[in-house]
Amino acid sequence: MQMTMKSLLCMAFLLFSSLLLRNTIVVNAGSVVKMVVVDLHGHGDFTSIQKAIDSIPDGNKDWTKIYIKAGVYSEKVNLTKNKGRLVFEGDGPSYTKIQWGDHCSLSKVSQTSDTATFTSAATDVVFKRITFMNTYNDIANPRIAVAMLVSGDKTSFYDCSFVGIQDTLCDLQGRHYFKNCQIVGAVDFIFGFGQSIYERCQIVTSRGLLVPGWVTAHGRYEPLQPTGFVFKNCSLTGFSKVYLGRAWGRYSRVVFYNTFMADIVLPKGWDSWHTPDHGINTNYGEAGCTGPGADTRARVPWEKKLNPKYIQQITSITFIDSEGWLINQGR
């Protein structure tokens, strides 16, 4: 049957309307609607990261990107909890660096949080392609010297580096996701009470530590707390000998899954530290790990034997994200 010109025009209009409607309605929940540029040389909106943050209104509801151009930013940065929905993006961890050198010393009493180069307390924050560094570097005399302190919920890190010696990354509290990141340190250099997955991350111990250190110090004081550190498809290499973790609370939970471990890992694996039950109630385990440091024959007797169901549960992204917050974050 031959179609009239009117019919053809009607079909074309309906097709165009359908495409227009589809493109209008389907909007990414994490779409960035504004960008602020930070450049040390004045070719942006600000020369300081802190000033860029201060320009964001309290109670911000629209995803905003703070693009940090290549450079070494020597400043102490504080993102307060009333400024969420932000994406911090650099030009790569080798090019965009944020550094400061505060540390706890015998002559100066200060809290751990006071030493952080970057403090992030806001909810719904994304960090991409940035190095965070604490420049205190006397490894013969380790001091609390935090590079990043993150306490905000729903925070993710992609292709970032964290560099320090002691307490490099304070994963203090909240649900966090780290992917393709590098964490460098020697003593408790991933610590806190967080509920986090570290996926495809490089964990590197610093050179020159005089006594063995610890990769993790996870705090957990109740058996039903959902918190814990999970390392999935990572690598643990470096120069100084370390324990995989020491218990900061009797129910401390850390799992290494499908992770390569160099010979820097001490055969015992774990340290019960000051727990009154000598580690019995900790939740430490390994599954599918490889490399000379992954030999578990001499591990502490209280390391948990992980069954397949538990491994599947704790290594799934639902361990930190059962509602889909990761896919709805700004890009």
Poorly predicted spans: 1-27
Shape, per Cα inertia axes: globular
Q: What's the order of the H and E elements?
A: HEHEEEEEEEEEEEEEEEEEEEEEEEEEH
User: What oligomeric state best describes the polypeptide chains here?
Assistant: single chain
Average pLDDT value? 92
Provide the CATH topology.
Pectate Lyase C-like
Class from helix and strand fractions? mainly beta
Fraction of helical residues: 10-25%
The largest sheet has its strands arranged as 1-2-5-8-11-14-17-20-23-26
Structure summary:
The chain is mostly beta strands and 331 residues long.
Helices and strands in order:
Elements: H1 5-25, E1 34-38, H2 49-54, E2 64-68, E3 71-74, E4 77-79, E5 86-89, E6 96-100, E7 118-120, E8 125-128, E9 131-134, E10 148-150, E11 155-158, E12 161-163, E13 169-171, E14 175-179, E15 182-185, E16 187-192, E17 195-199, E18 202-205, E19 213-218, E20 228-232, E21 235-238, E22 242-246, E23 253-257, E24 260-261, E25 270-271, E26 283-287, H3 308-315
Parallel strand pairs: 1-2, 2-5, 3-6, 4-7, 5-8, 6-9, 7-10, 8-11, 9-12, 10-13, 11-14, 12-15, 13-16, 14-17, 15-18, 16-19, 17-20, 18-21, 19-22, 20-23, 21-24, 22-25, 23-26
